[in-house]
Sequence to fold (351 residues):
Amino acid sequence: MLRYRAALAIIAIFFSTTIFCQDQYKVVCVGFYNLENLFDTINDPNKLDEEFLPKGDKLYNSATYIDKLHNLSSVISRLGTDVSPDGLALMGVSEVENRKVIEDLVDQPALKSRNYQIVHYDSPDLRGVDVGLIYQPKYFSVITSESINVPIFNSDSVPKPTRDILHVTGLLDGDTVHVLVNHWPSRLGSATATEPLRMRAAAINKRVKDSLIAKNPSAKVIVMGDLNDNPSDKALVESLSAKGKMSKVGPDDMFNTMYEFYKNGNGTLAYKDAWSLFDQIIISPGLLDKKGKGYHFYKAEVYRDQSITQQTGHFRGYPLRTYSGNQYIHGFSDHFPVYILLVKKVNHVNR
Fold:
């Protein structure tokens, strides 16, 4: 069974043999959350942000912005705290307008004590929404970071600006870890017509992952994000080579930690009463090796707490989003957050 030790954030796993043994594991939480249009209230002439302005259709003002920051921070503050008092060591985010909104988010009372730091680059996306990474310096330190462009085109060969991929390499409690934060092209138009765009984004992630594996076959790579595709779709299965079972993962593949949730009918967002699991965390074989040094994968979670779920009406059970049409409903996001637990053995005691 699992025993939680708050002071050390250690999982103690007990089992019975002829001699009672206790293995202790350090645990860290790594997550992703689509923050659903976390805009500021200032007009940026270079972005299509008019909808989220005080005089826009949604009447998005300072009070709305502050309330949304409070709501999102309350969710983030709870993720993973059942196994670690510090919650998430690092978390990818999407649908953020700029660095300032992330700064305002991590400065909220629910998160301020964790001293979250930020990695962010502006993307060419026309709506002005980007991806980013927040991390606790006590667990993670950045070595390098870069923003990787995703060149995609409309059917008439006109460039279609989209979100860049954020690639951050750092030390996670001594382990070198590579994190790729994504928000792949949407399905607007149709899922079939836009599928090649997401396959292109997936292929870029695979190229980066393959280059890291070529240098170090045990490299620990995490691909995360709102992928606008399900774990069974071609971009994941073919372009990224993300497998749903650990036993099927070869040296050139990745493991999709969210596949079983999707297979069992769970999702992170819903549309017309159909659930999708677009928010995923996918890991390289280096994070599956339980005999290797450092951290390895333990389990995954989709955070579907009642507090962030619509409780009444036609959308009962859906994520409680920020707006219903143009009416502010004091929600959180139209996506549920996801996270994984990574563990490493710290000692072995015989009694």
